[in-house]
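anyone seen this seq b4? input:
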Amino acid sequence: MEEPLLNYSPTMLEVRAWFKELKTQEKLDRLLDWGEEQPHLYGFIINLADDFTDEEHEALSFLPLLLTEVFRKTGLRIENVDSATLEKAIHAHSKGKDPEASTLMQQEMVKAWEDLAGMEVNAFQSRPEMTLVSAILISAFELAVPEKLL
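predicted toks r here
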């Protein structure tokens, strides 16, 4: 397996702590702002509501805010994820490929998701759809980096 392009783990831990400190209204305001900036990704997440419990879906809705902050802290700018970029990420991962998203970051995203949903650590381990959605989000973000790291 190739080395990941970036090690997001230390930054993700820092961002998770930062996010917990935000007030509920601040989280919601940031989510709405992000939804306007990234309407295709926001729609993708909203469309997953029926696939998860309310707690899981609410936590999923906040994951892109964490990912956005991780990218910002690592100095990466994310352009708008258009429908073609999102489709590329979905197609790659729904076919069992894993070309862009690092396994380590997928694990970090699932841990953050469990934490935000108030679940025990490794509660989602037997739920492959959690890893799939995380991988799609990560890939979409990485594909939207203008410097084209990948």
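Residues 42 and 135 are 15 Å apart (CA to CA). The longest helix spans residues 54-73. kinda curious what u guys think
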